[in-house]
Amino acid sequence: MSKVSIIIPTLNEATNLGRTLRQLTLLNPPAIEVIVVDGGSQDQTVTVAKQIFESFNQTLNVQVLSSQQPGRSLQMNYGASAATGDILCFLHADTWVPDDLITVINKTLAEPTIACGGFISLMSGSQTTRWGISLHNYLKTYYAGRPHHVNKTSLFSIESKIISLIPAY
Fold it and tell me: Using alpha carbons only, what angle is made at residue 32 by residues 48 and 112, rounded to the nearest 5 degrees?
């Protein structure tokens, strides 16, 4: 089984980050590491990250890094450079994942025709699920992975399969 590093770029995510990190401490099997890369939060994001990891799981390899510059892509690259896993899984600070996330990732990427995967977000609020937005996200994800051709030259020839992880909450 490949080792999975989870990387979470953050900016002012103190409200959402705690639930996601608590959930990551319950993964079975666990990720090899969880890396939170903060982009200069003005709230308690870094404190929340450190407190959650200290109180819930002493065996999980955790890093809380501060990016020199804000920007999601810069933070993702910084986290990727610090990661030691064979597979990188990038999450938003408010992402809910199933307890068997690592198994799902490994099984999906074990197929030789698959080189990457993605999540389809289910947009829900306090009173309702926003099915229209959720369908839009599904279609964007589906068509983003389809082969594209320019002058009959394939720019993207990897078969795309979607990892659909919609928690039953």
Answer: 130
**Bridge partner list, 63:** 35
Q: Nearest 5°: phi and psi at 15?
A: -65, -40
40: left (phi over 0), alpha (psi -120 to 50) or beta: left
> pTM, whole model, 2 decimals?
0.75
Return the beta strands (E) in the chain as ranges: 4-10, 33-38, 61-66, 87-90, 149-150, 153-154
Measuring CA to CA, which residue among 94, 96, 95, 105 is closest to residue 32? 105
Q: Mind listing the pLDDT tens digit for each residue in 33-83?
A: 999 999 999 999 999 999 988 876 566 788 999 998 889 999 999 999 999
Q: What angle do CA 43, 47, 50 make, to 5 degrees?
A: 150
Q: What ranges in 25-116 are assigned the alpha helix state H?
A: 45-56, 72-82, 101-110
